[in-house]
Amino acid sequence: MAESFGDLDPMMDAREADLEPGQRWTGWHRIEKDLWPPADYTALTAAERADFASDLMKNTETLDGRVQELTYTVDQIANGSRGLLEEVATGKVTGEEEIWSHTDLWDFAANVDGARVAYEGVQPIVEAKDPELATTLTERFAALQELLEAQRTSDGFTFYDDLTKSEVRELSNAVNALSEPLSRLTAAVLS
Asked: Domain boundaries in the chain?
């Protein structure tokens, strides 16, 4: 959602590698690096941490206020579902999302949940217009969820760097298997 507000996304979700020269780095990933520091990292001071936390909270509240004012059409909901899953395929399944904390599966699961909830919002339309697509989507969301549940731990999920190559491949294959029918969702709800 923050991506649709071009001013908030870089302040909340920028990665260090994506910064322009002289750009101040703020947001989730700035805090992540301080919480899971690499070997040569100089920790933030208490005042700096408070500043980054306050800034992130302010931007999150701004985002929440903007989101509350939005309304969505069925095609936007369907496109949003596809977009969330595309984020999984391009960043979260690769382990590039949370490079210090390795908590990628938390983000992965949140995106899958969001994509599923968006799909469920238009599911009655899809069931009426393309029952085969509805069945396929329901089955593939369930298969992907089953793989995620296999990685669930008492306090969240397996850390990404603890996954085997086979487990990553299984997750990637399940995302790809869901992506294809999900790419047909918008057309189905608009037909």
From this structure: 2-68, 74-190
Between the alpha carbon of residue 85 and those of residues 3, 134, 154, 180, 189, the distances in Å are 15, 16, 25, 10, 18
Q: What is the residue whose two structure tokens read 């009426």?
A: 128
Q: Count of CB atoms within 10 A of residue 45's CB? A: 9
pTM: 0.83
* Token digits of residue 80: 């949003």
3.40.605.10, 1.10.10.10, 1.20.1420.20, 3.40.50.40: which CATH number matches 74-190?
1.20.1420.20
Chain-centre distance for alpha carbon 136: 22
Per-residue pLDDT of the chain (191 residues; tens, 9 = 90+): 556 677 888 899 888 988 989 999 999 999 999 999 999 999 999 999 999 999 999 999 998 898 888 777 777 777 777 788 787 777 677 777 888 999 999 988 998 998 899 899 899 999 999 999 999 999 999 999 999 999 999 999 999 999 999 999 999 999 999 999 998 988 898 88
